[in-house]
Amino acid sequence: MTDPMLLDVRGLRIVLRQRDRDVVAVSNVDLEVGRGEILGLVGESGSGKSLSMLAALGLLPRSAKVDGSVRLAGQELIGLRERDMRRIRGKRIGMIFQDPMTALDPVMTVGAQIVETIRLHEPDLSRRAARRRAVDLLGQVAIASPEQRLDQYPHEFSGGMRQRVVIAMAIANDPELLIADEPTTALDVTIQAQIVELLDRLRHERRLGLVLITHDLGLVAGLADRVTILYSGRIVERGPVLDVFAEPRHPYTRGLLKAMPSSDETLDRLVAIEGTPPSPAGRPSGCAFHPRCPMAIDPCVSDEPSFRWFGAGMAACHRAHELEPHRQEVVHAR
Ligand SMILES: Nc1ncnc2c1ncn2[C@@H]1O[C@H](COP(=O)(O)OP(=O)(O)OP(=O)(O)O)[C@@H](O)[C@H]1O
What we know:
Family: Belongs to the ABC transporter superfamily.
Subcellular location: Cell inner membrane
Helix content: 25-40%
GO cellular component, one term: plasma membrane
Protein name: Oligopeptide/dipeptide ABC transporter ATP-binding protein
Radius of gyration: 21 Å
Number of strands: 12
Membrane topology: Peripheral membrane protein
Largest sheet: 8 strands, mixed
Bound molecules: adenosine-5'-triphosphate
Shape: globular
Low-confidence stretches: 329-334
Strand order of the largest sheet: 6-7-8-3-9-10-12-11
C-alpha cells in the first residue's frame, strides 16, 4: 500500500459568525503536501490562508463551523477532541509565525523555552537530556556557541537569530509537518535569505512537509514546489510552482506576479492589482475576482467558474483557456 499524503485537505469550508450572521470565509479548499515537499499558500490579506491552517491545527474560534476533511498521514483531524489535538499540535505539526518576538516569552531564557517545549510532549525526559537536545537544536539552526546562547534572553538575540530559535522550537519534537505563516516578513532581506536556506535544508534533512503562508511570491518561487493561490476564501489556481509562475492561467495570478518586484525592476514600475479584495460578507457573485478583473465578461458576474486543468495545474476562470502563455521571469533564478 502506498503511504497516505502527509497533509491532505479536501473540501474545506469554514463558516464564521460575524455581527450575528454566518459568513462563508473559506470554501472548497483542497491542499496536499507530501513529505519533504513545500506548498506555498498565497493570496492577499483576508483570502483565508491563516484560517485554513488554523482549521488544520484545531485553533479556530469556537463559533466557527468547519466542514470537509483534514488528514495528517491518513488521520482525520477535523472533529478531533481538544486533548487529542494538543498531542498533535507542537508535536506532529510544528508552527512558525511571522513575528518571532510574539512567539517567544521575553522573560524566559531561550534555553528554558526550548526545554519546556520539548518536555511538554515528553514529560518523562530529564531536564538535562532536554537541555542537551536544545543545544543540538540551536546548532542545527546554525546558532554559534549554543551552550552559552541557551542562557540568554530573547532580547539578546538579533531578529534573524530569534526566528532561528522559533524554528528550533518548531522542530524540537521532530514534527512531520511545519506550518510557517509569513516566516520571513519581519526580517531584512539578507536574513530572509538565510531563513529560506535553513527551511530548505530542514525539509531535505528531515523530510518535513512545509506549508508556507505568504504574500511574497518571490519566496514561493525560491522555495516552494507547488503553489495554491487563494482569493476570497476559494482557490483560483494551483499547480507546480514552475508551471504556474511561468504560465499563470488566472488573471489574479497574473496580477500578483506583475506586482512582484524582480531584480531589474524598481518598485515604482510595479503594477499592483487595482481595488481591494472583498470581505467574506461582501463576496461578489460569480467569480469573486470579477470586479477587479481586466478580462471579466458577463458569465464572470453570474456563474462561479469551475476548475480546468492546464498541464499539471488548474485554474478556475471562465477565460483561462483564452489566455496566451505569458512567460514570467521569476522562476529563472532557481
Ligand atoms: N475570528 C474571526 N471572526 C470573524 N471573521 C474572521 C475571524 N478570523 C478571520 N476572519 C475573517 O476571515 C477572512 C480570512 O481571514 P484570514 O486570517 O484567513 O486571511 P489571510 O489570508 O490569512 O490574511 P492575512 O494575510 O492578512 O493574514 C478575513 O476577512 C477575516 O477578516
